[in-house]
Design a protein that fits this description.
This protein is mostly helical. It has three helices and no strands. The chain has one domain.
Length: 85
């Protein structure tokens, strides 16, 4: 669903990566001899991690539903007019 694939999981994964960088800024004050410049950021790797986590969690949810006897119908819905029902 949207939460796993596009909303919650991806945003929290990006936030986690940002949190590591924030902690690195504090490292010296915590007794670590590391400079923030030593930590190179790879946006493609971060993005791949986000996609992998989202896909994995989505597959896990699908498996759990199938194990409970739920029939999953893949596809995409679309509104064809503004009339309900």
């Amino acid at each position: 669903g949207a939460c796993v694939l596009y909303d919650c999981v991806p945003s929290k994964s990006f936030i986690a990566s940002t949190g590591v960088r924030t902690e690195l800024r504090r490292a010296k004050g915590l007794g670590f001899d590391i400079a923030i410049d030593d930590a190179k950021i790879s946006p493609p790797e971060i993005n791949n991690r986000v996609k992998t986590l989202a896909a994995s969690q989505s597959a896990d949810i699908g498996s759990q539903l199938l194990n409970q006897g739920v029939t999953i119908i893949g596809g995409r819905g679309e509104f064809v007019d503004d009339v309900s029902g």
